[in-house]
Amino acid sequence: MEAVLPVLDSAVRLSVPLILAALAGLFSERSGIFDIGLEGKMLIAAFAAGAVAGVTASAWLGLAAAVVASVAFALVHGYASITQRGNQIVSGVAINFLASGLTAFLGQAWFSQGGRTPPVPAGGRFAEIELPGAEALRGVPLVGPVYAELISGHNLLVYLAVLAVPLSAWILYRTRFGLRLRAVGENPAAVDTAGISVAWLRYRAVMIAGIFCGFAGAYLAIAQSAGFIRDMTAGKGFIALAALIFAKWRPWPVLGACFLFGLLDAISIRLQGARLPIVGEVPVQAIQALPYLLTVVLLAGFIGRAVPPRAGGVPYVKEH
Amino acid sequence: MSADTRSSPPPAAGAAPRAVRIPPWAEYGLIPLVNVTAAFLVAGLVVLFIGESPLAAVKLLLWGALGFGEGIGFTLFYATNFIFTGLAVAVAFHAGLFNIGGEGQAYVGGLGVALVALALDRIAPWWVVFPAATAAAALFGAAWAFIPGWLQVRRGSHVVITTIMFNFIASAMMVWLLVDHLMPAGSMQPETRTFAASAALPKLGGLFALLGLDVGGAPVNLSLFLALACALFVYVLVWRTKLGYEIRTVGLNPAAAVYAGISITRIAVVSMMLSGALAGMMAVNPVLGDQQRLQIDFVGGAGFVGIAVALMGRGHPVGIVLSAILFGMLYQGGAELAFDMPAVSRDMIVVIQGLVILFAGALEHLFRPGIARLLALGSAALRRRAGAPGKAV
């Protein structure tokens, strides 16, 4: 128990940005807009959060800046994909490079610390929250430590990320907006025939993706760490994309897939140089590559089948 | 089967037919020029935003890239990388496939170069090592691209996603190989031993000296000619052979290709392998031409620059060579610029790269209607002046 809990705890922390980014991709892709720019949006958000919270010492202002920056990038992607009917993959690639270049460039120009933002003072971070009764229950076997270590003691964004999953499921499957959103990703012509604007629906989906990526970036810069560093997303946007595919574009499985990938990450940190009973020393790189390998295998249909939204990636033209 | 071409139309090769018709010189010359200019204008605004002068920056950049012999040498050295990766992206584009995996394919290609060089460098001269290493690089790159290509046509998994995943897998695999297997005992650097000097590719310093240019210590080497030969090869292949015709047909209209009896499976796999081979050969330049050893992350983003280069060059080898030189200038000039104007760091290049991909790729139709209207106005005026209902442009 003592050995497992810290790993699970760090898995939770590592899976939070994946959950938020994967939910971002969920809304965008279910509406028919492919989004490989999750990485870039998260990165620009992390930079905005780190820079603003570092200067103002306010976590909330940092979060707001992150969301604004990320939504701005999302709107560029939306404009290129929806209004200009450009190639969504190319647009996503552009977003990723823009974010990677701009964050390093502006960071260096403004703060001259090799792309870092100034260290965020205490008030500029989302502090860990002690849930009521955590200390009192610690003595209770099994439940106590799990509650005190695993469930309690995270920052606000962790809890928000977990709550975002049922919220997303409710929006997608229980509201009129969600129904239309899913419809526009499968058959935009039918939605158009019903007199609903395809473009406006998709713009809203893309903006929601921007908001989620904003939270994910803020989590990286001002909750998990105390400041932005160069390329701090380090491929998390692509792992989130992998998790989204792994979850077959559904909210609850997104939570599971992200936790699985977060767990793999936590284990790979834990296993550095450790020897396992039967297999001997496992190369850390093998565990790091596992999420990508699993996604390739899944996409190839060797375990289950991942079918993307039918209209994904296709620009909608009103009259054919 | 179902080649999933719908979601990755070739943005470089013939865009979707549009209502307005404009002459080829505008389609292939003017519009790309306007798109790239827009990208650079926005980049200039970013420089202005941090309080530096964009004009001064451009001047420093141009001087750093072309102002002296060594600068030109480095510009061409970087351009060599980008010709390979740009061609790689373009060949796949022509078949309607977006290969984002050039980075990983080049990385794995480097493994091919290193294995051949480590085996032969002490027993064979460079002119034996060079072709063998090139073949190995092409083979390794092609093999790494084969899997995503095959998975797309046979298992329906999207080549964009698979190639992204394969970049990460390649990176993890290469770190593991270098750290656990290829690193010489007692070394602390995750890299192979240095190859024997006799295996090194000839530098082009002597050749440029004949032209009266002193490139100093610039590592521009024989690979430049290999890259140019590849550009010629791609031109002949895509526009002058049956295979190239089939590749373009599949890219433009897969349904028509099937109707014409072309196997989409074969074309997708062959073009991905060609693409991977071109990307893999990029490794020859830095590994055998410059560093003389295989290092971690030696590709350094050149695979991704290939995307911008291919889009800017509209998938044509001439355009690709020109855009590769432009990006070579940015890489070399950017380094000099960062030295003289510390506020403008080299990361500006990545911003420009992103803007070029955005304007020349995703927003390629942004200025099209406006230009078409201007051209129509212009030709109408010309006709009125000529006083005859002449041939429309």
From TrEMBL, chain A:
Membrane topology label: Multi-pass membrane protein
List the GO terms this entry assigns under cellular component, sorted alphabetically.
plasma membrane
Q: Where are the transmembrane segments?
A: 12-28, 63-82, 89-111, 156-173, 205-222, 254-273, 285-303
Q: List keywords of the entry alphabetically.
A: Cell membrane, Membrane, Transmembrane, Transmembrane helix
Q: What is its main location?
A: membrane
Q: Name one Pfam family in it.
A: BPD_transp_2
Can you tell which superkingdom this protein's organism belongs to? Bacteria
Cellular localisation: Cell membrane
In its UniProt record, a GO molecular function of this protein is: transmembrane transporter activity
Provide the protein name.
ABC transporter permease
The species is Propylenella binzhouense
Q: What does the record give as the organism's lineage?
A: Bacteria, Pseudomonadati, Pseudomonadota, Alphaproteobacteria, Hyphomicrobiales
From TrEMBL, chain B:
Q: Which UniProt keywords apply?
A: Cell membrane, Membrane, Transmembrane, Transmembrane helix
Q: Which organism is it from?
A: Propylenella binzhouense
The superkingdom listed in its UniProt entry is: Bacteria
Could you give one GO CC term from the UniProt record? plasma membrane
On whether Membrane is a keyword of this UniProt record, the answer is: yes
Could you give a GO molecular-function term held by this entry? transmembrane transporter activity
What membrane topology does the UniProt entry give?
A: Multi-pass membrane protein
What is the protein name for this chain?
A: ABC transporter permease
Q: Does the keyword Cell membrane apply?
A: yes
Q: Give the location in the cell.
A: Cell membrane
Q: Where are the transmembrane segments?
A: 28-51, 71-92, 104-120, 126-147, 159-179, 220-238, 258-284, 296-313, 319-339, 348-367
